[in-house]
Specification:
Helices cover 15% and strands 30% of the residues. With 184 residues, it is an alpha+beta fold. It has 2 domains: 59 residues, Roll (SH3 type barrels), CATH 2.30.30.40; 98 residues, GMP Synthetase, Chain A, domain 3, CATH 3.30.300.
């Protein structure tokens, strides 16, 4: 995606990258959209310095239309089950805000379990890591992953835990992720 300069049309909540600190960016601030993947935008603020993550629900502030990727209501569990393949595909909608590759192809998902619940529906448990232990974006990326899973029919509960063992290395990326980064 070519970078695009925009002026924010209203005040907007964002997450500062990589600290993970919530901030409010004021109306009229100039921003450069550096990444628009999944249901988030990564913007650079030339006047403030640094990168910030803006949720798709606030796409209008950037002059964009919401992609509607995560607007499905949270499922109350329809009594059915969800497939592992479906959960993996849903997790491919979650991106690291600094690297334009989804968390699955980056090799950040370490474990995925689906457990049927006695009252119907399924519980999905995911263990994921980050590319760097000091990354403050961990809670935000984990929330994004949990939200994406919760939108799936048949999912009653979802939990995403950030773990550090084993430490992430580039070798954990999928062949597609390596191809996208030019790492072979």
């Amino acid at each position: 995606m070519p970078y695009e300069e925009v002026e924010l049309s209203r005040d907007c909540e964002a997450i500062q990258i990589p600290q993970g600190t919530p901030v409010t960016i004021p109306k009229g601030t100039l921003a450069v959209i550096t990444q628009a993947l999944g249901d988030t935008y990564t913007v650079q603020l030339p006047t403030e310095g640094g990168l910030y993550r803006i949720a798709d629900k606030d796409a209008d502030v950037l002059g964009k239309k919401s992609k509607g990727l995560s607007t499905a209501p949270v499922s109350s569990g329809d009594g059915g089950t969800v497939s592992e393949e479906t959960v993996w595909e849903q997790l491919k909608q979650v991106y690291d805000p600094e690297i334009p590759i989804n968390v699955v192809d980056l090799g950040l998902i370490y474990d995925l379990q689906i457990n049927p619940l006695p009252e119907g529906g399924s519980q999905v448990l995911v263990q994921m890591t980050l590319t760097a232990p000091g990354c403050g974006m961990g809670p935000s990326i984990a929330r994004d992953a949990q939200h994406q899973i919760e939108t799936l029919p048949g999912v009653t509960e979802a939990e995403v835990r950030v773990v550090w063992d084993p430490p992430w290395t580039p070798e954990m990326m999928s062949p597609e992720g390596k191809r996208q980064l030019g790492v072979e």
